[in-house]
Amino acid sequence: MSDYPPAGPPSTPPPAAGYPVAAPMRPEDQRLWATLIHVGGIIFGFLPALIGYLVLKDRGEFIRDHTKTALNFQLTILIGYIAGYILTLVIIGVVVLLAVWVISIVFAIIAAIAANKGEVYVYPKWCAIPFIK
Question: What string of DSSP letters covers 25-55?
Answer without folding.
Answer: PPHHHHHHHHHHHHHHHHHHTTHHHHHHHHH
